[in-house]
Amino acid sequence: MFITFEGIEGSGKTTQERLVAEHLRAKGRTVVATKEPGGTPLADRIRAIVLDSANVIDPIAEVLLFAASRRQHTTEVIEPALARGEIVLCDRYADSTLAYQGFGRLIDLDRLRALNNWATNALVPHRTLLFDLPEEAGLTRARSRNANADMDEGRFELEDLRFFRRVREGYLSMALAEPRRFVVIDAHADVDTVFAQTLAVLKDIA
Ligand code: Z5A
To answer: Is 87 within 8 Å of 206 (Cβ atoms)?
Structure first.
């Protein structure tokens, strides 16, 4: 079972992935909880490059960096774990490229889909949880988290609200187009309430 967690920054998907992993492990399931960009030593180095606000990155170079990270992560971590029969939870995957580079940066979606298929051996998550939140609320949460942790703003946090609105709307349109895979979760509520909704949509496995 391959489950991905998607949404704009600050939507709470990382928090929910952690809670789902803890819940499943407590039930004795073997879980690999991972994230993109990153998830292997090489992909973590790519992550550092793409998120560093000091780097000016050409939009197509950015797409290729995410794809290289995804390829390494898929072949080194995700496919082997699935082959062992483990549950893989992944914070962002190929849909992030469609949402951010496709809907956000307006790069041709068909090219991005072809690249995703190549990078992933056409692996598609069994279920994708989309944590939906207005962009203003997501950025407020992310900025207050950064301020509390004394973290710098990443390269994407410098984008304006219109960019994040396109990303959010892009995610919602993907969910509408693939209702059997996507489940949209209202991410407004407190962490426990969102977790209850998350477990409800995973009740067949969790
Ligand atoms: N990106 C891309 O462009 N193309 C791609 O193909 C891929 C990625 C794979 C990765 O950033 C960036 O890469 C991302 C998209 C781009 N950039 N943006 N934007 P990242 O990995 O550093 O971060 P992120 O994935 O965007 O999200 P995040 O910052 O980790 O946030 P989150 O996962 O949505 O939320 P969180 O960490 O669980 O929570 C954020 C804060 O809100 C934290 O303080 C929590 O305690 C709090 N929180 C969580 N849930 C709640 C609720 N329910 N209520 C109130 N507060 C909450």
So the answer is: no
Specify the residue for token string 């803890």: 22
Residues at CB less than 6 angstroms from ligand 1 = 7, 9-15, 36-37, 51, 66, 92, 96-97, 100-101, 141-142, 145, 154, 156, 190-191, 194
As to burial, measured by CB atoms within 10 angstroms (0-12 exposed, 13-18 middle, 19+ buried), residue 19 is middle
Ligand 1: centre distance to CA 119 (Å): 23
What are the tens digits of pLDDT across the range 100-133? 999 999 999 999 999 999 999 999 999 999 999 9
CA distance 183 to 194: 13
Backbone CA torsion sign across 35, 186, 101, 153: negative
The atom of ligand 1 lying closest to the CA of 9 is 26
pTM, two decimals, is 0.97
d(CA 89, CA 25): 12
Q: CB-based contacts of 34: which residues, under 8 Å, 6+ apart?
A: 73, 77, 78, 88, 89, 90, 91
Domains and CATH numbers, the chain: 2-201 (3.40.50.300)
